[in-house]
Amino acid sequence: MRGVDFTASSLHINRVRPTGFLGHLMSTTNEWPAHFPPQCPPADAADLSNTVFYLVEHNPPTAEDFRSARERDTFIGKPECERASLSCGLTREYILRLKDSIPRLKSMLVATSDLKAEHGKIKPTGRPGHHSMWLCAVALASAPTLFQVEQ
Predict the structure, then answer these.
(1) pTM value?
(2) Is the dihedral of CA 90, 96, 101, 105 positive or negative?
(3) CB 117 within 8 A of CB 49
(4) Could you tell me if residue 5 is inside a domain?
(5) Measuring CA to CA, which of 17, 20, 54, 56 is 20 to 30 A from 4?
């Protein structure tokens, strides 16, 4: 077209980051999910390099199983970055003890995954044995296939 400048410098592009599941799929492994507050995960969180034990409601796990307290609007008053994480354990014994000690968790299933640094960060928080896990956007979108329910 004559007289119209289509160079990148002449165009105003509004880059809106997609949210929800679509946003997770479009992110790269180095990006964190949109529901994470600033400075999250914390600087003192370690790279994942563990077998992680996690409680789910469904077999096989679904995306719903991997919604944080922040997304579910629960645990109000707790630190926002911890609310954006997923609670997990590094031992089967811990996760079974947790499951047996809290009535609403009794019917949940134990799922496991061998996670690496590319999947996210982890930090001990709360009671002994409890960890907060922050999955990067791509890993969070893949979580239903990364985690397998134990039989």
Answers:
(1) 0.78
(2) positive
(3) yes
(4) no
(5) 17
